[in-house]
Amino acid sequence: MQKRSIQRGRPVGTTTYDADAAIAFGAAVREERTNQGIAQETLAHLAGIERSHMGKIERGEHVPTLPLILKIARALKCSSAHLMALTETKLAERPPSKSAD
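Above: the chain sequence. Below: its structure as tokens.
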């Protein structure tokens, strides 16, 4: 029996971007930010990221990494679990987007 080599990384043609999750997370961040009366630019500054990057996150154009989610939660003075719960609620409210297969 021949041993197969393990290739690192994602298989060719796959992506980690999930539009539904990205849009729901962005909506959760925007909702929490506006409920607290914080401007987008202020939140970006508190989280230590560029304002344009924060805008992309809120619009669902970018999926943040775990460290960035933790920074955003800290800047909003809430837990990352709270942001994830809001995200899950938003996902449940949205019909799934159709993928172009």
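The domain at 19-93 is CATH 1.10.260.40 (434 Repressor (Amino-terminal Domain)).
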